[in-house]
Amino acid sequence: MATDIAPAPPAPAPPTQSLVSEMRKALSGNIRQYGMMIALLLLVLMFQVLTDGLFLQPRNVTSLLVQNGYILILAIGMVMVIIAGHIDLSVGSASAFVGATVALSMAKLDLPWPAAILLGLALGILVGIWQGFWVAYVGIPAFIVTLAGMLLFRGLDLMILNAESIPVPESFQKIANGYLPEVGPVTGYHNPTLVLTLLAIAVIVYLELRRRSDLRRYGMEVPRLTLSVIKLVVICGLLLGFGLLLASYKGVPVVGLILGGLVVLYTFITQRTVLGRHIYAVGGNSNAARLSGVDTKRIDLFVMVNMGFLAAIAGMVFTAYLNAANPKDGVGFELDAIAAVFVGGAAVAGGVGTVTGSMIGGLVMGVLNLGLANMSVDSNFVQIIKGLVLLGAVAFDVYSKSQGKPSFIGMILRGMQRGGGGGDGSGDAGGGGGPSTPVAEGEEGSGFRNASRSHTGVVEMGSPANPQPSAG
Amino acid sequence: MSTPILTMRDITKEFPGVRALSDVNLSVQRGEIHSICGENGAGKSTLMKVLSGVYPHGSYLGDIVFEGQEMEFKGIRDSEAAGIVIIHQELALIPELSIVENLFLGNEQGKAGVINWPVARQRALDLLARVGLDEDPNSQVKNIGIGKQQLVEIAKALAKDVKLLILDEPTAALNDTDSRHLLDLLLGLKAKGITSIMISHKLGEIEEVSDSITIIRDGRTIETLDVTMGEVNENRIIRGMVGRDLDHRFPPHEPSVGDLLLEIRDWSVGHPHDSSRLVVKNANLSIRRGEIVGLAGLMGAGRTELARSVFGESYGHKLGGELVKDGRTLRANTVQKAIDAGLAYVTEDRKSLGLNLLDTIKVSITAAGLRKIRRRGVVDEREEVLAAERYRKSMNIKTPSIEEGVAKLSGGNQQKVVLGKWMFTEPDVLILDEPTRGIDVGAKYEIYEIINRLADSGRGVLVISSELPELLGLCDRIYTLSAGVITADVPRAQADQEILMRYMTQRKAD
């Protein structure tokens, strides 16, 4: 309370906190996400060591993107469905149905591939409207509607495929297996990929600088420069490394471009637009949202339609990846997407989650898949490990919140801080365990209720200064 | 007097960064009703959680002596075994289960895990008779009113052979009749030798039923007043709670009433599940600019239902009537249209209807007025920060930052956030449904000042409240509602509690 911020005058607040405590504060909002990001890096390093340097071979990294692209695309839609407080079990079947229809339209009707893609997208939207109608306007729980959809669209898929495998033309296969064409001088690297990487870094630096100047202009507390520099160095370093790896093989795959574009677009939608705000509002408290003028039914419809749209993209990417539509396509996709979303920090009760978090969650699962495969671990065993990781990630989050501790990383930083002294300890992110400031005292321990869900700060995550690791 | 049944000595409880209780002493005599008073956040609930074992022995300093023995409760089961039962403000009943199932939940009547239903039913009837509740034990709890649910809670406590009953805000959600019944029941239990501790914000009740009152402020015991010795009145209690005299519980206000602003004409609303059942019948109500209008009614009279149906028809089926604002008929059949037309409705239940507890203060304040700060569907975050800072200042929301989560705020500050949220929509008419429920005395005063300021700026305010003194202290005119019918329109000068109560219980022949 002593460090009350002066609201109007644009005087920058004096840096009263130690660097460590500021770092802790910056990290504390997104407990599971930062935890997962670090877990992801550790996992990559571990596989790099265990596979004797095979894991981070350019070819391997590229295939990580290609093999997980469709699940990550599904996870974007899924996290929005889950934020709004629903679930979608039908995405695997819907993807397969769209993939099969598109393959058939090209094989039997000789539709050119761009037209086939448009047909696929339209079909995905129709699937979404069908399910959204039942969820939003009839009020049937999404679990039931999409369980029905899972059977329904699988049946349609099997019916039109008639137990056959329908190959797709080579031009269509490019969606998954193609790469950006090489241009310019021979540099030993893939030039367009290098340019894209540098461009992405420039944008990230620009956004961070703009954020700082905005904060200063409005007299808000500006985090110290060192913190921004550390953040930028870490993020840009990772991005550059990733870009260079891709550039030293065949460059960025087309599916990587699609995914990157979708991540940027949907991060923007969820974090910066009125629509995004409304999705979080409906999931957080639909009654309060309704009484604030939000058309909750339209939001419910939107997230389902959007999911159908993205399921269509994922379905077409997968069909292209396999070069054909097969009857068993898409089985279990929904579970991989849902796992990615929950590992990435979303709350089952809705209202909490981010697109970036889900991407990290999806990559954690993808890295496990690929790394264990590189090590020739039995695939049955891989399943067991993935199951335990999902459980462990969520359990750790629940445990650290019930203890009122910020997070694993917060605990480490707190230890460091104790040695260094200083800091006002205002970064108490746990949200649990009783009052933390005088104003925080409330009736019947509202902290308890808060503790059962993820922290509010997650909503802030995807601000423009937080880029996507896979956006290159 | 004999030895006390309960003594809590030098209780100190710390949370990281804050000392919630310091050296609190409490002594409760056998067979008395002992009230604990204090502002929200003073430490009342914390003290009761220490007593009932929610905070186990070892997590606090100090001693608890109950019936002459020193107690070291490790959890709520220990305290219940000793005969201490706490009834929380938010009832712990399971709506889908029957009364008898709820009564013996965790305490099932039977052997080897098999429930003996005839015995359970028989015992349930006895218990219900003791609390004066005439209901079939097989009725589902969700189908009985909240007043009766409170009685079931007490019966449940009696089933556990309670010696010391702790009630946290037992009448907060009850109407006057149910409150009366509950207080009489407490007095009846007292006559049968059961000791009670009651936490309440309703000072009138406290004064009436308590034998002694302990006042807690800022985590310390201020004093214990003996009511039976006389010389205790509301002002005396308030002085102890806030540490200052609140001679005027309501800020002075000179109304400057202007033109007719909003008229509700012949308004009828049907129940959401059965539109033939009228919840509001041919209501006529008007609000002028600069006027604070009260709406009084017992629980179930249709106050909230009327307000919500006016606010974008967000409750029930509108069966007839007209809404006229500034001489023009409004057609606001969605909440968004109502907001656009300049209406605002502050809900009675902040936590379940007013706020998204996952949000920050900033996001909460702009939640209903995003239209004002969007550019092509994108939220202008600079405008948002400015707006939130503006209302943090003007509403005096006590928080280190607008990025703080609303769940962490006290009730009074949460209410200020909700008020800020609705003022941000720049309404002409504000409907405030129980604007000070569950808020401490100091914050109430601030809310009243805000309401007065709203009226002075030429807006019209409709205040719904269960506390008649609040309506009498705040409003220029008060409507009474009884069973969906507006029974009177009383100017403040002519109103007192008895007159209002008479109209609130009257049924007009329709």
UniProtKB/TrEMBL annotation, chain B:
Record has Transport as a keyword: yes
Chain ranges of the ABC transporter domain: 6-243, 264-508
Single GO term (MF): ATP hydrolysis activity
Keyword Thylakoid included in the entry's annotation: no
Primary localisation category: membrane
Annotated membrane topology: Peripheral membrane protein
Protein name in the entry: Sugar ABC transporter ATP-binding protein
Organism: Pedococcus bigeumensis
Lineage: Bacteria, Bacillati, Actinomycetota, Actinomycetes, Micrococcales
